[in-house]
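re: ur question from earlier - yeah i can do the single chain one, its not a big deal. heres the input i used so u can compare w yours
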Amino acid sequence: MTLRFATAAEGALDLHVLEQGAVDAWLSDQPDHVAAWVRASGFEGGIGDTLVIPGPDGGPTAGLAGYGNAAARARVRFTLAAAAPRLQDQTWRIASGLPGQDAEREALGWLLTGYGFSRYRDQTAKTGALVAPEGIDADRVEILAAAEVLTRDLINTPAADMGPEALEEAVWDLARDHDAHVEVIAGQGLLDHNLPMIHAVGRAAKDDPRLIDMTWGDTGPHLVLVGKGVCFDTGGLNLKPGASMGLMKKDMGGAAAVLGLAKAIMALELKLRLRVLIPAVENSVAGNSFRPQDILHSRKGLTVEINNTDAEGRLVLADALALADETAPDLILSMATLTGAARVAVGPDIAPFFATDDALARAFEAAAPGAADPVWRLPFHDPYEPLIEPGIADLDNAPKGGFAGAITAALFLRRFVTETPRYAHFDIYGWQPQAAPGRTKGGIGQGARSILAALPEILDL
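and the output i got, formated as tokens:
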């Protein structure tokens, strides 16, 4: 689906955005009949409050949207998005009351309110149309919305229709839209090209495991995005219980996130060289599944003892990270729905990340509020390194004890990035458990907008 601003302001109705407590001041400048209508309605300016103001003939002439107060806005990612569905069947232009520094964020939230996943039944969201507020880069906001749509659609699609082959086709579609180049290594070719852990994790599935490699741009800093593409995760021979398997169509959320980010980078024509690596597999159960206590060889030459086949995401990411690291790019970013420990630490709403240097972390943290995309730094805590060293092999994919699971997973991944000084890993959830303004229940993008907003500073674009 395409989310866009209204193409013309002609015929649009004025929408006045009013904070809670500011209604009386606004009414003091309005005609008596307007003031009487608003007071009779009980409109107070709370978040989600709306009111259509009629003219003499009874038809709508203007509207009000509540903006709450500072404390209430701190609890809502996109404030005006709460009003958009209640102002449907009209086109609106912001006439007053929306702070300029909030306009781009609120305009994006309004657009995202129109998202509905309609592949299997019509879930088109009913919402008012919006003219792009003055002073914002409307094209950029529409690009951000399109990137989010791609990410949500990929995550929401069940594994029967979004296995490794279908995920590859989605990359081809994106590449064709932006004149990017794609190469794919699949099946036995993974062993021939020294990508053994990707092969081991995915070899039991009907769809061949594969590494999808998309490149775009020929000038500027070199950025590599690596996204976990586990299209469904049964847990392998360490089979997940049914309750834990229920959302595993979203285990390719890291791949969906980096593809949304890549779409935005290419559409904005950022002056950089982009590479996207997606190890796409399904972690299935069959006679040739990899087993607990197996020792896997990696592209990096490190050996990995398998103590839980359900800790497979770090295995496929490791081979892809090792490949990325061989060219020593300016920055490597990995994104993955990797650990339950990250959810325990920060919940589903925040994208925790790890960074190899403080300046990189500060850039993400500074960009997050304006991008309406909260992130939180967790540490690469070196004293925990022994936890991922089992003795029989170089690394352990599932350290015993259960402590610091997100950190030990990130430390595991860092072992495969040795030639690239700047590396960050985002351990995202990729799912909105309950609907919120601008964020439908289901697949969701996390981290990508903060990364995009931080890239100009990080890469000196």
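The chain has 15 helices and 19 strands. not sure if urs matches, ping me
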